[in-house]
Amino acid sequence: MRWMQGLIAGALTLALTACTTSPTGRQQFTLYSDEQLNQMGQQAFAQYNRDLNVVDGAYQRYAECVAGAMIDTLAGRDRNKDWQIRVFDDDSANAFALPGGYMGIHTGLLDVATNQDQLAAVISHEIAHVLARHANERASTQSATQIGMSVLASSAGLQGTQGEQMMGLLGAGAQYGILLPFSRRHESEADVIGLNLMADAGFDPRASISLWENMQAAGGARPPVWMSSHPSQGQRMGLLQGNMDNALARYQQAGPGPNCPRP
């Protein structure tokens, strides 16, 4: 069991030296520097811009107007990131965020988010992922999990077909027991941070509920929650509703938001 003691000691040391705090006060496990992740985000975003059809003109101005209003409410280092948003010609109702402040919106999402407040609910969620350094946390958790599985396989002498089967089971356990729950936690945290962010910028936070009602109407088969990287739509709507009173107070304090013309 000496190897196990060494593994535990190493894991504890790694956890203590890689502990940070999210905007909600939750402790995080992060192994990478912001500079490393930001560079990766910049490179990935450049590849998206090369591989996908970028939609310019009114759609781009619309997305920049909504995103810019929320970025303006940020302070200090967060506001000064190299925030960029692009609209890509894709029928899927999707959006994404990359470390460093690089975001993408698919044109299909604009069919679901029918006004600027609903679009703000999406963009604020993506901004929240960046502010909370979720990409760093996910990458760090995955790296630590892979290292731990490799050490376990080597120390236990798992080889051949039997070893491959055992590692497959361990991999499934890590996926459903560690990596996906972390991802669902990130989505929920981004929902709450984003709800407050859109309210602070003068966007009606109640539109976040309307957005998910539109998502539900759009339909589509979904895996069970425990096999999904996202909470169910009902769970997300419940979480948003549970935080709505605080968001509405912030919205009323912020006053009228921008008027971003929808194409």
Write the layout of secondary structure elements.
Layout: H1 2-17, E1 19-21, E2 27-29, H2 34-51, H3 58-71, H4 76-79, E3 84-88, E4 95-98, E5 102-106, H5 109-112, H6 116-131, H7 134-156, H8 160-200, H9 207-218, H10 233-242, H11 244-254
Parallel strand pairs: 3-5
Antiparallel strand pairs: 1-2, 4-5
Helix pairs in contact: 3-6, 6-8, 6-9, 7-8, 8-11, 9-10
Provide an overview of this structure:
The protein has 263 residues and is mainly α. The protein has one domain (18-254). Helices cover 64% and strands 8% of the residues. It is built from eleven helices and five strands; from the N terminus they run αββαααβββααααααα. Strands 3-5-4 form a three-stranded mixed sheet. It has a two-stranded antiparallel sheet with strand order 1-2. Strand 4 and strand 5 (102-106) form a beta hairpin. Helix 6 (116-131) crosses helix 8. The protein is globular. The N and C termini lie far apart (65 Å). Residues 1-17 and 169-180 have low confidence and may be disordered.
Summarize the structure.
The chain is mainly alpha-helical. It has eleven helices and five strands.
Shape, per Cα inertia axes = globular
Radius of gyration: 20 Å
Give the terminus-to-terminus CA distance.
65 Å
Number of domains as seen in the coordinates: 1
Mean pLDDT: 79
Q: What is the tally of beta strands?
A: 5
| Beta strand % | 5-15%
Poorly predicted residue ranges: 1-17, 169-180
Give the helix level as a range of percent.
Answer: 55-70%
